[in-house]
Amino acid sequence: MPDPRILILTATPVEAAPLVDRISGANAAGNRVTGMLGGTPVRVLVPGPGPVNTAMALTAVMEKTLPALVLQTGCGGGFAQAGINKGDVVVATEMIDVQSGVEPATPPDIVDALPFPVLKTPAGEITNRYPADIRLADTACRAARNAPMATGCGAAMGPIGSVVTITATDLRAQALFDRFGLCMEAMEGAAAAHVCLHYGVPFLEIRGASNIAGRRDRADWDIPLAATNAAISVCAFIAEWTKRPEACDGKC
């Protein structure tokens, strides 16, 4: 059964808060909030951090109803090597499961890609890279660049790596950037993209940089800034997307 609402995924209540604050007629039930963003019906789902929580919650939704679009948002670690600064927004061009693969010959190295697909789609086989719909990503990035984010914060497009082990050293961050050219790392995007591809639902990932990937220093993180800029960018994208619904007419 189709659902005209946009489903927005955020891992934690802290990340969801700036978005929920912008919903009119909000109706909360458990880890879900429904209402309107502008004139668009949305459902915000907060399944908890990590790929397992995300895949379980999203699959449960999809088995009952297929949303018009799924948006993964929240915070992540930006890669300074890609020119990302704290507070910047990244729109994913692809979601990469950087930890699914074959053990490398040199254990500290990044894993090699799996020798078999984890998902087969009409567009090709997926091992660890989930391509984004570039039309959606381009619309989202342009909308973010024109949105009233915090002073000095910008928006970029690029790969977002999905991890289950948070990067905590500069050496690891450099290795990930060298292999994948990442703009950001987070935890849930590849899992959500996998489920959406399986059910044929358009997917987009938009995140704010709460910190710079590398040496871990929680005192230097700014989750409220990142979550707010991400929420502003999500709202700007939805406002733009609703002007051209043909962008997601089943051909995404």
UniProtKB/TrEMBL annotation:
<dbReference type="GO" id="GO:0008782">
    <property type="term" value="F:adenosylhomocysteine nucleosidase activity"/>
</dbReference>
<protein>
    <recommendedName>
        <fullName>Futalosine hydrolase</fullName>
        <ecNumber>3.2.2.26</ecNumber>
    </recommendedName>
</protein>
<dbReference type="InterPro" id="IPR035994">
    <property type="entry name" value="Nucleoside_phosphorylase_sf"/>
</dbReference>
<dbReference type="GO" id="GO:0019284">
    <property type="term" value="P:L-methionine salvage from S-adenosylmethionine"/>
</dbReference>
<keyword id="KW-0474">Menaquinone biosynthesis</keyword>
<dbReference type="GO" id="GO:0009234">
    <property type="term" value="P:menaquinone biosynthetic process"/>
</dbReference>
<comment type="pathway">
    <text>Quinol/quinone metabolism; menaquinone biosynthesis.</text>
</comment>
<dbReference type="InterPro" id="IPR019963">
    <property type="entry name" value="FL_hydrolase_MqnB"/>
</dbReference>
<dbReference type="GO" id="GO:0008930">
    <property type="term" value="F:methylthioadenosine nucleosidase activity"/>
</dbReference>
<comment type="similarity">
    <text>Belongs to the PNP/UDP phosphorylase family. Futalosine hydrolase subfamily.</text>
</comment>
<feature type="domain" description="Nucleoside phosphorylase">
    <location>
        <begin position="5"/>
        <end position="239"/>
    </location>
</feature>
<keyword id="KW-0378">Hydrolase</keyword>
<comment type="function">
    <text>Catalyzes the hydrolysis of futalosine (FL) to dehypoxanthine futalosine (DHFL) and hypoxanthine, a step in the biosynthesis of menaquinone (MK, vitamin K2).</text>
</comment>
<dbReference type="Pfam" id="PF01048">
    <property type="entry name" value="PNP_UDP_1"/>
</dbReference>
<dbReference type="GO" id="GO:0009116">
    <property type="term" value="P:nucleoside metabolic process"/>
</dbReference>
<dbReference type="InterPro" id="IPR000845">
    <property type="entry name" value="Nucleoside_phosphorylase_d"/>
</dbReference>
<dbReference type="GO" id="GO:0005829">
    <property type="term" value="C:cytosol"/>
</dbReference>
